[in-house]
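#lab-general

N.A. 3:47 PM
ok so I finally got the sequence cleaned up, no stray characters, all 204 residues accounted for. can someone with queue access submit it? mine expired

B.Y. 3:52 PM
send it over

N.A. 3:53 PM
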Amino acid sequence: MTTLPDLTARTPGLPCRLDPAPFFSDQATERAAAVRLCRGCPLRPQCASYALEQRIPHGVWGGTTAAQRRSFHNGRPWRFDDAGRLRLVCGSEDAYRSHLGYGERPCDECTAAHTAHVEAKRRQRLADEHALGGSGVGYFLHRRLGEPSCEDCREALRLERAAAERRRAARQGHGQPRTRSGTSRAAKRTSGAPAGAQPLPIAS
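B.Y. 4:20 PM
back already:
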């Protein structure tokens, strides 16, 4: 099997061999220049793959920086996009979010993966609600999933709405405006004569 050192030894004029200093510089501007030099290199994919597989923690390899490679140390599949950026292979929720992070419209493959991801999360939440005996949340999860609600969730929603209506009615019942003394005006109107008042004389 041909290794990367073998390939570099057989390929003349590689920028990293002519002047390796920028590829291992502490200066961000020099590393950025090294990344640009990698773009025209015929060994770029092999070099990047080698650095990712070996988890090399320093330097510019195949147009990738150490910081970029750290996101792929868990073995996630990668690719170079049209702009030469190290990216996840399409077809996952993370790749879908990567599209959004770059201000791109997600591709069909990533959109399908996102749709499946969202549905799986909703179904897991629905299973949790069912384990509690059903709920109003479960009722609306059924609707989000495009399916009729189960009996337990319908009944739970009915009970939740009835309880909310009772709380609303109770609040309205305590909503009479109060005077400064704390007695409602309606209560004052219906309380009769004030204490200590003398009855009116009745003419004979």
